[in-house]
Design goal:
Layout: H1 2-24, H2 28-41, H3 46-58, H4 62-75, H5 80-92, H6 96-109, H7 113-125
Helix pairs in contact: 1-2, 2-3, 3-4, 4-5, 5-6, 6-7
Amino acid sequence: MLLDRKNMIDEIEEKYEVAKNLFENGIFKHSKKIFIELVLEDPFRWEFWFAIGSIYEKEKNYTQAIISLNMAKILDAKNAEIYFQLAGNYLSANNKKKAFNMLDIAKSLSKDKNLLDKIQILKTQNNL
């Protein structure tokens, strides 16, 4: 039984690496298919939901991106990068109020200077 669980975890990690590599190389359709399979196998990994949201964003499907990123946010509520990504999608969906709120939360959570700079740039560019 323990061996089966370990094999399943190894298989999930292997699929995750394949999906990540596909995503990083711009092969979004196949990458999304694998990430959706991964979510069905292990729905409690924020990284899977975040990746699906990022793919929907690349496809300009902002509503689905927001839904997926909100799932990631539920699973990792203190991850500033998720809030930043949500802000970008809310801006693309013409919801400046939610974007502003997400950027404020991202700023309060982040200790990463690079992300803090990106937050400020996005606020300035969009008069937030």
